Description:
40% helix, 8 helices, elongated
Amino acid sequence: METYNLSTITKKIYYSGLTLFTLKVLTDILETRKENTTFNVIKRLIESGVIEKIERNKYILSDKKSSDFSLSHFLYKPSYISFETALNFHGILSQFPYEITAATPRKTKKKEIKGKIFSYVHIKKDLFWGYEKREDYFIASPEKALLDQLYFESKGLKKTDIDEYDFSFISITQFKTYVKKYPQTVQWKKIINGVSRYILL
């Protein structure tokens, strides 16, 4: 029968340097061989306040803060921060959105963790690009975040108040390059023509 000292396994958790854990990662850190043992150890860790369960088979260190963007990526992969959330991050939109929103090639989903809403919006696989890695999450470039927002507006799924946007953070060259990669529908061209007057001033 496998037995584990709580102090020893707690040290293993902290020495890992991680804040967020999947069940598999915890199993690897704890080096448990049986599933029942793994869950018993996790139960003890939760009861002692070392970790918290945030959803099925996903956990977080109780006394460590994880950024909203890191948590967003951890909860639903693949995904990258985009739309209003990324626009606010890049300084294009001053108003901070209520939800943390990401683009994903998987199905649209919404999760509520510790009172915060994490939204994942389905985007076509051929539009799943234009992002970069920051720490342990991915975020759209200023141009891609803007175009994602406009693309969903062209489909009637989002609304954009251009007067609230600061386009000084947008690269005109990158914007023009990215625009061509989206489906060239009549509605898309109409929206891009309207926004271009602001960006190309």
